[in-house]
Amino acid sequence: MKLLATILSTIFHPLLMPTYGIAIALYTSYMRVFGDRLLGIIVIGVLLTTCILPSLGIFILYKTGHISDFRLHNRTERTVPYIINFVCYIACYLYLYRFGIPNWILSFIAGAIVSLIISLFINRYWKISAHMVAAGAMAVLVFLMSIYRLMLTPYIFPLQITIILLAGLIGSSRILLNRHTIGQVGAGFALGAMCCGFLFFLFI
């Protein structure tokens, strides 16, 4: 079970979730009319700015001895990596903005930026689950796309069921691996959901 939990935690790492979210927003909505080539370029740019560059920064911190664990299990060592993520997320937002991406999609990245800032302050006193912050944002994105008819009909029900199951599995994995408590998992999900939802209504 712990092996499965580790695999799930890796596949749905917080650094990968923005890419998954943007891919869902682009490929399951009317944005599909712009074609796979353009959408692929956009998704690769998101992957570069929200995953590859932050990972490189964290790896350099690890190699230079500024953090003891590449996976950031130590709460007190998360501050600088979070700041690196913040800068990269701003770059991602500007990248998408220059592509003329609709506001409702930009709100997903904006929500991630806000939740990152809040998580940074919370993390000084308490270890909130970054995995579940990302899962909460993804869940709200899927359901808001469905409610506002932004998602193409064939994708609605399968994605709603999938995101609910995934959120449960990810949260259970973090608890099973003793990375977080139930409270930290629940708080992370709530924070991600509220930030993404608030920014969606602010931007739309």
UniProtKB/TrEMBL annotation:
<keyword id="KW-0472">Membrane</keyword>
<dbReference type="Pfam" id="PF01569">
    <property type="entry name" value="PAP2"/>
</dbReference>
<feature type="transmembrane region" description="Helical">
    <location>
        <begin position="157"/>
        <end position="177"/>
    </location>
</feature>
<feature type="transmembrane region" description="Helical">
    <location>
        <begin position="104"/>
        <end position="123"/>
    </location>
</feature>
<dbReference type="InterPro" id="IPR036938">
    <property type="entry name" value="PAP2/HPO_sf"/>
</dbReference>
<keyword id="KW-1133">Transmembrane helix</keyword>
<keyword id="KW-0812">Transmembrane</keyword>
<feature type="transmembrane region" description="Helical">
    <location>
        <begin position="184"/>
        <end position="203"/>
    </location>
</feature>
<feature type="transmembrane region" description="Helical">
    <location>
        <begin position="82"/>
        <end position="98"/>
    </location>
</feature>
<feature type="transmembrane region" description="Helical">
    <location>
        <begin position="39"/>
        <end position="62"/>
    </location>
</feature>
<dbReference type="InterPro" id="IPR000326">
    <property type="entry name" value="PAP2/HPO"/>
</dbReference>
<protein>
    <recommendedName>
        <fullName>Phosphatidic acid phosphatase type 2/haloperoxidase domain-containing protein</fullName>
    </recommendedName>
</protein>
<feature type="domain" description="Phosphatidic acid phosphatase type 2/haloperoxidase">
    <location>
        <begin position="128"/>
        <end position="200"/>
    </location>
</feature>
<feature type="transmembrane region" description="Helical">
    <location>
        <begin position="130"/>
        <end position="151"/>
    </location>
</feature>
